[in-house]
Amino acid sequence: MAGARCSGCGGWSGRVRGSCLRFPADFPVAGRRVVLWLRVRRFLCEDVSCGRRTFVEQVAGLTR
Predict the structure, then answer these.
(1) 4 and 55 in contact (C-beta within 8 Å)?
(2) pTM above 0.85, yes or no
(3) Which sign, positive or negative, has the C-alpha torsion 31, 27, 41, 4?
(4) Of the N and C termini of the chain, which has fewer Cβ atoms inside 10 Å?
(5) C-alpha 20: how far from its chain's center?
(6) What pLDDT band is residue 43 in, cutting at 50, 70 and 90?
(7) How far apart are CA 20 and CA 51, in angstroms?
(8) 8, 52 contact by CB (below 8 A)
């Protein structure tokens, strides 16, 4: 994707600030521990009235 929606105001941003790793925890699968590494991008919110200056993109169905 070229950008993401801000979780504060819902506005669209394409200004990437950086990236980070996320490790979502879930239940074991078939009795085995599952480790999932997600590299997600951090964006700058372009709406000056939004209280959230940066936000992390969400992966549909995995993060919120």
Answers:
(1) yes
(2) no
(3) positive
(4) N
(5) 9
(6) very high
(7) 21
(8) yes
